[in-house]
């Protein structure tokens, strides 16, 4: 099992101008890795991070879009996988932290903690779907995530850990949203 904070720290070391869409527990842990202008936080819209990321990927095909999602969040909008598979954006990477729970909502277990999300993604038309169980394997895969054609789906098997501090007020502050818009408008 992987510590999500360590996985996000590894990913953050390789990023340059990619858009990162993150939601709930993945978002708070992602923000803890450091400030980035091209971070887009999707709170209050559980299940929609992949849809937001898909919209950004289609609107900005010159930029790689990485979605940091959770298993519970994805389960609330599985239909997005079929849409992603159908439109097949080459710049789209979807990483789902799978710990078998609705972690952000108190850690309640998923109805099936062992659901094969990579298998569901694959049968939804996302051929490049992987299940990763070690930090070393995830770290080795990062260059492919950043450079190979997508869509790419990664089910990252993580341990349920302590949640990072969460401040919706900070995540949604006007200056952060404005900086994100400015970065997109100015290439």
The counted number of beta strands is 8
The succession of helices and strands, N to C, reads HEHEHEHHEEEHEHEHH
- What is the CATH superfamily classification? Thiamin diphosphate (ThDP)-binding fold, Pyr/PP domains
CATH classification class? Alpha Beta
Shape: globular
Helix proportion: 40-55%
**Side-by-side strand order of the widest sheet:** 2-1-3-4-8-7
Instruction: Report strand %.
Output: 15-25%
Give me the secondary-structure category. alpha/beta
Write the CATH architecture name. 3-Layer(aba) Sandwich
Distance between the amino and carboxyl termini: 37 Å
Number of helices: 9
Please give the domain count. Answer: 1
According to CATH, the fold-level topology is Rossmann fold
Largest sheet: 6 strands, parallel
Task: Provide a descriptive summary of the structure in words.
Helix content is 42%, strand content 19%. The strands form two sheets. Strands 2-1-3-4-8-7 form a six-stranded parallel sheet, sandwiched between helices. A two-stranded antiparallel sheet has the order 5-6. Strand 5 (101-102) and strand 6 form a beta hairpin. The chain has one domain (4-173): Rossmann fold, CATH 3.40.50.970. It is α/β, with parallel strands linked by helices.
């Amino acid at each position: 099992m992987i510590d999500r904070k360590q996985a996000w720290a590894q990913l953050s070391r390789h990023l340059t101008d990619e858009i990162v869409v993150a939601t709930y527990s993945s978002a708070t842990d992602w923000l803890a890795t450091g400030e980035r202008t091209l971070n887009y936080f999707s709170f209050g819209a559980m299940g929609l991070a992949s849809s937001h990321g898909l919209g950004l990927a289609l609107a900005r095909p010159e930029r790689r879009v990485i979605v940091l999602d959770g298993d519970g969040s994805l389960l609330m909008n599985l239909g997005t996988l079929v849409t992603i598979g159908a439109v097949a954006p080459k710049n789209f990477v979807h990483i789902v932290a799978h710990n078998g729970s609705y972690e952000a909502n108190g850690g309640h277990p998923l109805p099936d903690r062992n659901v094969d999300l990579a298998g569901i993604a694959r049968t939804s038309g996302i051929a490049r779907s992987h299940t990763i169980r070690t930090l070393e394997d995830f770290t080795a895969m990062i260059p492919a995530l950043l450079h190979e054609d997508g869509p790419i789906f990664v089910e990252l098997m993580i341990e349920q850990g302590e949640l990072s501090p969460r401040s919706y007020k900070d995540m949604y502050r006007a200056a952060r949203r404005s900086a994100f818009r400015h970065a997109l408008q100015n290439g």
